[in-house]
UniProtKB/TrEMBL annotation:
Keyword vocabulary terms for this entry: NAD, Oxidoreductase, Tricarboxylic acid cycle
Pfam annotation, one family: Ldh_1_N
Entry binding sites for NAD(+): 8-13, 33, 95, 116-118
List of catalytic residues: 170 (proton acceptor)
Family membership: Belongs to the LDH/MDH superfamily.
Descriptive protein name: Malate dehydrogenase
Ranges for domain Lactate/malate dehydrogenase N-terminal: 3-132
Segments forming domain Lactate/malate dehydrogenase C-terminal: 144-274
Binding site for substrate: 82, 88, 118, 146
Matching InterPro entries: L-lactate/malate_DH, Lactate/malate_DH_C, Lactate/malate_DH_N, Lactate_DH/Glyco_Ohase_4_C, NAD(P)-bd_dom_sf
Organism: Acidianus hospitalis (strain W1)
Length: 304
């Protein structure tokens, strides 16, 4: 019996929940949000979709955190969304205060926590710091699929023939791991690397400016991460797992085997240049993260 809980069902939370549930991989799903009636009404819509697809998953839409108790996997997308002109890091202080939630760990010890709330890697680190639970960040798997889709488009080849991963911190500081990029199993010479990197980092902002948010791409990709965990698929995905860096637990994306057990990473299989960029990303992440932690207040105490 697999019970999954989705915490925060705004636009991205709805898309992830729908995409994951239509895979038919859960026995029970809880949709939790603080907005009165909202989860219940979303539940009604999802029940009709599942009826059409003949998927026998029990769905509960609720404003009560008690209903989340006993989950095997908890997907967290609660928080303020990114608006036009904002960076993901601009959301840190407000969303960290939401993420530091003592009720979830207390009710779901030993669950796999999947962080979606932005800035996603830092929110995973904050949650790990205060909950002491195992949490992954969905990290750069979204960027990795964006990379493959764009290479497919400019080279006019089927996207199923394109491989490649993006690593580092999710967002503007992500790095393309060029040693992993291949078409039909072969590395491609003379790729317009600067153009590709610019696209991978800038297109989300363009989509947000025009459409108000990115949903279907990330929602589907994150649902794939969830499916890989639940079905023990052992797929390689660019997610961020907790790792010790100096005095903090941090989350930086590296191609990682994802199944019911998370890991190992494929860090040792990357080129020296790619590993250097990942090390640089860790240093930058740690520096910014330590500074950001000062903006959080919990129970009247400033985090240091």
């Amino acid at each position: 019996m697999i019970k999954a809980s989705f915490i925060g069902i705004g636009k991205i939370g709805q898309t992830i929940a729908y995409s994951a549930m239509t895979r038919g991989i859960f026995d029970e799903v809880v949709l939790y949000d603080i907005i009165p009636e909202f989860p219940e009404k979303f539940e009604h819509g999802l029940r009709r979709a599942l009826a059409s697809l003949r998927i026998d998953t029990e769905v509960i839409g609720t404003n009560s955190i008690d209903d989340v108790t006993g989950s095997d996997i908890v997907v967290i997308s609660a928080g303020r969304p990114r608006r036009p002109g904002m960076s993901r890091r601009d959301l840190f202080a407000d969303n960290a205060k939401i993420i530091i939630n003592k009720e979830l760990p207390k009710r779901n010890p030993g669950a796999v926590y999947v962080m979606v709330t932005n800035p996603v890697d830092m929110m995973a680190s904050v949650f790990a710091k205060y909950s002491k639970e195992y949490v992954i960040s969905t990290g750069d798997q979204v960027e990795s699929m964006r990379l493959r889709a764009y290479i497919s488009k400019i080279l006019h080849v089927p996207v199923s023939q394109v491989d490649g991963f993006v690593g580092g911190e999710h967002g503007e500081d992500a790095v393309v791991l060029w040693s992993t990029v291949a078409v039909n199993g072969k590395q491609v010479e003379d790729l317009p690397k600067e153009q590709i990197e610019k696209y991978v980092k800038s297109i989300p902002g363009d989509i947000i400016r025009v459409m108000g948010g990115t949903t279907w791409g990330p929602g589907t990709i994150i649902a794939d991460i969830i499916k890989a965990i639940v079905l023990n698929e052992n797929r390689v995905m660019s997610i961020a797992v907790p790792r010790q860096y100096e005095d903090e637990i941090i989350h930086i994306s590296i191609p990682t085997v994802v199944g019911s057990k998370i890991g190992p990473t494929l860090e040792d299989h990357l080129s020296e240049d790619d590993r250097w960029h990942l090390i640089a990303a860790m240093k930058d992440y740690y520096s910014v993260y330590k500074d950001m932690l000062k903006s959080i207040k919990t129970e009247g105490e400033i985090v240091s």
